Amino acid sequence: MQISVDISLYPLKEGYEKPILDFIAALEKEPNVDIVRNELSTQIHGDYAIIMPLLQEEIYAVFEELPDSVFVLKIVGNNRKGIY
Questions:
Q1: 33 contacts 26 by C-beta, under 8 angstroms
Q2: For the residues 1-19, what does the mean pLDDT come to?
Q3: Is the pLDDT of residue 63 over 70?
Q4: Sheet with 69-76, edge to edge strand ranges
Q5: Is the pTM value of this prediction over 0.70?
Q6: Are the C-beta atoms of 23 and 9 separated by less than 8 Å?
Q7: Staple partner for 33: which of 46, 47, 70, 77, CB 3.0–4.6 Å?
Q8: Are the C-beta atoms of residues 19 and 69 closer than 8 Å to each other?
Q9: Does residue 16 carry a pLDDT above 90?
Q10: Among 62, 9, 7, 58, residue whose Cα is nearest residue 35
Q11: Which residues have CB under 8 Å from 46's CB, separation 6+?
């Protein structure tokens, strides 16, 4: 099943840009998903079976490093790349 996920990360600390960029870079290491960045959020498009474990791993890594962080996720049950 193809999905799209819109993600916003809000590290509740000064110097918040680096953790956000590091999170996006970690997602971009997965070659089987499409990542689209913009000023407000990041979109991931691809297979549910690849995206969900990837998000689980990378969100966990952020919470280990910065437990005072907030993620906002919007998940759509089809691939909406280019339709946003």
A1: no
A2: 93
A3: yes
A4: 33-37, 42-47, 2-11, 69-76
A5: yes
A6: yes
A7: 46
A8: yes
A9: no
A10: 7
A11: 2, 3, 32, 33, 34, 79
Compute the average pLDDT of residues 21-40: 94
- pLDDT > 90: percent of the chain: 81
Question: Six-digit token pair at 76?
Answer: 């759509």
Site of tokens 């970690």: 26
- CA–CA dist 78, 2 (Å, integer): 5
**If you search the block for the tokens 């000064």, which residue do you land on?**
14
Asked if 44 and 4 touch (Cβ cutoff 8 Å), the reply is yes
Identify the pLDDT of residue 42.
Answer: 95
Pick from 50, 3, 48: nearest CA to 27: 50
